[in-house]
Design brief:
This protein starts with a helix and ends in a 6-residue tail after the last helix. It has 13 helices and no strands. It has one domain: Orthogonal Bundle (MetI-like fold), CATH 1.10.3720. The chain has 282 residues and is mostly helical.
């Protein structure tokens, strides 16, 4: 009864204090912002220790499962060879050119397919057909067309990254909130203005997700292409190490490739957080 008879200002202040009290338990402390990093680092350390213990216990021979220390030694030995930089540069060039072409062509085509329904009707059968086709099976044909140099690997990387970028971009354009489009048209905005201010910002999360997926496929394309036929590259080094039973070296080269993917994925995640505020809100 006392609460009901209280003045509006007093009730508002009481409600604010109650809400603040409810938020206190869930409010992160000083280390709250570093919680993902701390938990992730702890998980990696535990995994590495367990891996080393299993390797050292003799349950599996080191030929089949080298420990992290052996892999680290293999990586040091790899960088002691000066030709590693030629192989890294070759793989990087294949990844950069192929992934860059996939972005340059996949984004505009995906935008056109999402924005114009008839273009989507015309291209959708081809996209579905080639996306379902195993690109690895095309490597012998690509080698015949482009040779064993970097261009056949660039083609493999391009085909692997192109379709995830295109499909996610098209899905982002199609998933726009209809109320935002109607509101923009009600204010007399042209199609170009709607596209630049509503459609493109609203599809940014889908586009960046497509880039992350395309990056994974691109890295796979680099390795697989070089495993089949190559003159230089990390995939070629992996093939040689595997054929000579240097398991630790294989893990070392895998670590180099995975580290590259992690770094590039973090860059895309930073871009995603940066452009999150750019999206239109209801």
């Amino acid at each position: 009864m006392t609460t009901l008879m209280a003045k509006p200002d007093e009730r508002t202040a009481a409600a604010a204090r109650a809400a603040a009290a409810l938020k206190v338990p869930g409010r992160p402390g000083r280390l709250g912002r570093f919680e993902p990093l701390l938990v992730g680092t702890a998980a990696v350390v535990v995994f590495m220790v367990a891996w080393q213990l299993v390797s050292a216990s003799g349950v599996r021979p080191e030929l089949f499962l080298p420990g992290p220390l052996a892999v680290a030694q293999g990586m040091v030995a790899a960088f002691q060879d000066s030709t590693i930089w030629v192989d890294l540069a070759t793989s990087g060039e294949e990844l950069g050119i192929g992934f860059g072409l996939a972005i340059v062509l996949g984004l505009p085509i995906g935008i056109l397919m999402g924005w114009y329904r008839r273009i989507s009707y015309a291209l959708e059968p081809f996209v579905s057909f080639f996306y379902a086709m195993p690109r690895i099976a095309l490597i012998p044909l690509l080698i015949i067309w482009f040779g064993i140099g970097i261009y056949s690997k660039v083609a493999v990387v391009f085909l692997g990254a192109f379709f995830p970028i295109l499909i996610n971009t098209s899905a982002g354009i199609r998933s726009l909130d209809g109320s935002l489009l109607r509101a923009a048209r009600s204010f007399g905005a042209s199609d170009a203005q709607i596209f630049l201010t509503v459609a493109l910002p609203g599809s940014v999360p889908f586009i960046l997700t497509g880039l992350r997926l395309g990056l994974g496929h691109a890295l796979i394309g680099v390795v697989v292409g070089e495993l089949v036929a190559a003159q230089h590259g990390i995939g070629l080094r992996m093939s040689i190490a595997g054929s000579t039973y240097q398991t630790a070296m294989v893990f070392a080269y895998l670590t180099m490739i995975s580290a590259t993917g992690v770094v590039l994925s973090l860059v895309i995640q930073r871009l995603e957080r940066r452009f999150d505020a750019w999206r239109p809100r209801n």
